[in-house]
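Structure first, sequence second, as always.
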């Protein structure tokens, strides 16, 4: 069969779908880029927040409408269907197979036999191959699900408790990816710092990956604040390959709001951790994420958040307007913040961060950076330094009088900047 796959949501879904593609190819099927060439359309859905749910539902409905015009089978799986299996099956009967959060091998079987599967979430799996694709980087899922009880998050109810993949299995997958030319390995999990498998922990895993031969980077995403300890910091500092890039979602800075969120309200301990990291790695890059408009958030709480951002001067900040998710503790928490107020706070936060980002980028002019080249457009190459994760951070646009190999590392001298992107010359 010719199979078209659409991936919505987080990088964990991208890793799952690349594994699915490899299984399907090994079974003799063909993966196609254009829907009009497909016999089967597959959607890997997301249900993290309201916007993600709407995007997933809209995509499903678009495919169902397309199915009315062309003889095509539709298979839907992932977080949305895990969470709303019965509702989707009842309301959208044209779907040929619905599955929740299950391993890629189970999805491949469903594509062939077009049978539903409604059971407990199975978010991890054994390594059975990966499609290499054109990107010079790859996400590697080391675990999924979550044991944390954050008041705003539906993930534990969708994916269940944290389950980690096999230690040797992860190393086998990374070895495979590096042998096949990947230059950046990005570790992802709902709670990366809580990795543990048969006596091996996150530090053990990082040291083993660091010892894999090859010229590649290791990037860590989704580091829960409590799990960022001195051992982890020194492991990164002493590593040959782990980037000095710390993605630590903090969610807020007001002790009151953090307590309501069921996060650690000790923001002073966070400040000490960041200070310690900067003392060991002056070039460390910090990315974090904040939620604005959480129930009971008052103007004073939001001002605390702005002051925290001013004080810490994070390199990268993601912001989200609170999404009221049924089944979560915060769903019943009142009073709610008006959407218009939350949106204004969202814009104010981003404007404040833009000023910080612009000032930080200004200091980079004249500096040289190892850069991973990702593509070519409008007469310029573009890529990323260690400071930027794919799809969420900025790019470096590269002027070069000679051809540059896509997927290679080059040295670039920064000559100009914008809020998020840089421009430089090939050295």
């Amino acid at each position: 069969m010719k199979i078209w796959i659409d991936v919505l949501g987080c990088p964990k879904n991208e890793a799952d779908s690349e594994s699915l593609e490899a299984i399907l190819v090994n079974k003799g099927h063909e993966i196609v880029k254009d829907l009009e060439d497909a016999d089967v359309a597959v959607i890997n859905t997301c249900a993290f927040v309201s916007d993600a749910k709407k995007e997933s539902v809209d995509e499903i409905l678009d495919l169902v409408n397309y199915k009315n015009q062309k003889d095509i089978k539709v298979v839907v799986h992932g977080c949305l269907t895990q969470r709303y299996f019965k509702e989707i099956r009842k309301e959208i009967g044209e779907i040929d197979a619905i599955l929740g959060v299950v391993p890629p091998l189970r999805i491949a079987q469903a594509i062939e036999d077009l049978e539903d599967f409604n059971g407990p979430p199975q978010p991890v799996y054994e390594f059975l191959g990966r499609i290499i694709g054109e990107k010079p980087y790859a996400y590697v899922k080391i675990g999924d699900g979550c044991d944390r009880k954050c008041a705003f998050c539906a993930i534990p109810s969708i994916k269940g408790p944290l389950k980690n993949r096999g230690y040797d299995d992860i190393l086998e997958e990374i070895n495979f990816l590096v042998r096949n030319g990947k230059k950046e390995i990005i570790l992802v999990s709902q709670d990366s710092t809580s990795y543990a498998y048969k006596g091996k922990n996150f530090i053990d895993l990082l040291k083993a990956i660091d010892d894999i031969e090859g010229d590649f980077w290791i990037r860590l995403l989704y580091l829960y604040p409590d799990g960022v300890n001195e051992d982890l910091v020194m492991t990164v500092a002493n590593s040959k390959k782990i980037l000095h890039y710390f993605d630590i979602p903090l969610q807020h800075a007001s002790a009151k709001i953090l307590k309501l969120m069921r996060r650690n309200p000790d923001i002073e301990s966070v400040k000490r951790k960041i200070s310690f990291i900067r003392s060991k790695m002056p070039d460390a890059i910090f990315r974090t994420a904040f939620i604005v408009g959480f129930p009971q958030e008052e103007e004073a709480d939001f001002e605390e958040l702005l002051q925290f951002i001013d004080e810490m001067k994070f390199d990268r900040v993601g912001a989200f307007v609170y999404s009221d998710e049924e089944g979560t503790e915060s769903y019943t928490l009142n009073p709610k913040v008006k959407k218009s107020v939350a949106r204004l706070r969202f814009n104010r936060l981003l404007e404040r961060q833009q000023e910080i980002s612009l000032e930080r980028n200004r200091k980079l002019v004249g500096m040289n950076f190892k850069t991973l080249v990702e593509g070519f457009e409008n007469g310029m190459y573009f890529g990323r330094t260690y400071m930027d994760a794919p799809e969420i951070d900025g790019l470096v646009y590269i002027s070069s009088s000679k051809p540059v190999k896509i997927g290679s590392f080059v040295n670039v001298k920064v000559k100009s900047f914008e809020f998020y992107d840089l421009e430089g010359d090939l050295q």
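Margin note: Residues 384 and 390 are 8 Å apart (CA to CA).
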